[in-house]
Design brief:
Blueprint lengths: L12 H13 L6 H14 L4 E4 L2 H12 L6 E5 L4 H9 L3 E5 L10 H7 L4 E4 L11 H10 L9 H6 L3 E5 L7 E2 L2 E2 L6 E5 L12 E5 L7 H11 L8 H4 L20 H12 L1 H20 L5 E2 L8 E2 L5 E5 L4 H13 L15 H5 L8 H9 E4 L7 H18 L1
Parallel strand pairs: 2-3, 2-4, 4-5, 5-8
Antiparallel strand pairs: 1-9, 6-7, 6-11, 8-9, 10-12, 12-13
Helix pairs in contact: 1-10, 2-10, 3-4, 11-15, 12-15
């Protein structure tokens, strides 16, 4: 039986050659390829200040640390997200304030977000679930509207004078919001280039910085880069220049840098991202939608709205009139037929760590309902039309065996 995987990376000969070139160059850690990738991402998303790091998680956490988030502070984020979004808040001793999804989609409920803002709110962290951007203009407006509640606890926070908006754009590289590429719509945005993402560096992430005046975004990027390298004032490449071995340590920093080996993978993928990768993903998602719209048990995902177009990262199908246990039976059936599927995501209150912190599933009815009926289908550049047909028919049969 042929196995259809869920989301293998697209690694072609060009990518392999690019990595081999780096391996032969004698420079495999952070160096010219990383800086080139940062430059190319900046041009792609329309911003000036990009820093590539070794994961979304570390990139986003460094931003929270730079902003001074700590014990007693609150960070608002959706209950419907991967654990990393909330874990980084817990790392700092702050409190994740979880918000339910909207009734009919996976994105954060903005009315509930407004109601959750307090004098302890330091950051709003919306999530582009599946690759469809949230309404960034509205969230930016909310942050300004509630600035009178903001209680700054350090000079950086005083300079901003309101809640920081940190966009979790882990899924939405290549998406558009109001006609522009996602990545420069709010204060700070963070991408993931993990192995299953549309654009991958195997492991990796990037932060884009667009803070308003009087902030100097280049200085902020430099500060984050120092924090990512043990607080060291020079990176390894800079120290190799003649007479430039000396450096200083100005803080007890971390180790979050991306390597040139990883950057080479990302640069290769970025060259054909709009011409091959996104169109292939869009075609698959549109074919799935066309097929499943014929069935009253299928709730097909939305990829385009009046203001946004998805990056087609995930195909998040929901099944009408199905229980969580039945949904799991469908997943098992597909696996038995050689078709890998997935679920995105388990809402945070369902997970033991957050449950033990006191979060209750009943407080997030929309998130829990959508989770119980959701099945993610394979979407990747190399998924053939014949395999797409197998995926669709297998899922159909699995559902109809139960309903």
């Amino acid at each position: 039986m042929k196995q259809i995987p869920f989301s293998p990376p697209h690694i072609d000969q060009t990518t392999i050659d690019a990595v081999v070139e780096v391996l032969k160059s004698g420079w495999i850690t952070t160096g010219p390829r990383v800086r080139e990738l940062e430059s190319e991402i900046a041009k792609y998303v329309g911003t000036d200040h990009v820093l590539c790091l070794n994961s979304w998680t570390n990139a986003a956490e460094l931003v929270l640390r730079w902003f001074g988030v700590g014990p007693g502070d609150e960070v608002i984020l959706p209950a419907y997200t991967y654990a990393a979004t909330a874990n980084i808040v817990c790392h700092l001793g702050a409190t994740p304030v979880l918000i339910d999804s909207e009734k009919d989609n996976f994105l954060i409920d903005l009315n509930a977000l407004k109601a959750a803002i307090t004098v302890n709110t330091k950051v709003i962290m919306p999530v582009d679930i599946g690759g469809l951007p949230v309404d960034y203009d509205q969230i930016n407006a909310i942050a300004k509207e509630y600035a009178h509640l903001f209680n700054a606890s350090n000079d950086v926070q005083k300079m901003l004078g309101r809640t920081l908006v940190l966009g979790d754009t882990a899924h939405s590289f290549g998406a558009t919001y109001k006609g522009k590429k996602c990545g420069a719509q709010t204060d700070v945005m963070v991408f993931s280039f993990h192995a299953v993402k549309n654009l991958t560096t195997a492991e990796g992430g990037a932060v884009t910085i667009q803070l308003p005046e009087p902030f100097n975004n280049q200085d902020i990027r430099k500060s984050l880069n120092i924090s990512a390298l043990h607080g060291q004032t020079k990176d390894a490449l800079s120290k190799t220049q003649a007479g430039q071995w000396q450096y200083d340590i100005i803080e007890a920093g971390y180790k979050c840098n991306l390597t040139d080996v990883h950057a080479a993978i990302g640069l290769s993928g970025l060259k054909t991202y709009d011409s091959l990768n996104l169109p292939a993903r869009q075609k698959i998602c549109e074919r799935y939608n066309e097929f499943f719209r014929e069935f009253d048990w299928a709730i097909t995902p939305e990829f385009k709205t009046e203001m946004a177009v998805s990056s087609y990262h995930l195909y998040m199908l929901r099944i009408n009139r199905i229980s969580e246990a039945q949904r799991d039976e469908v997943i098992d059936y597909c696996a038995q037929q050689g078709v890998s599927t997935n679920v995105h995501f388990q809402p945070l209150p369902r997970l033991s760590f957050y449950k033990n912190l006191g979060y209750q599933e009943n407080d997030y009815p929309h998130a829990m309902k959508q989770f119980a009926s959701e099945i993610s289908l394979p979407v990747y550049m190399d998924l053939s039309e014949s395999d797409q047909l197998v995926v669709m028919n297998t899922l159909k049969q699995g559902v109809e065996n139960i309903l």
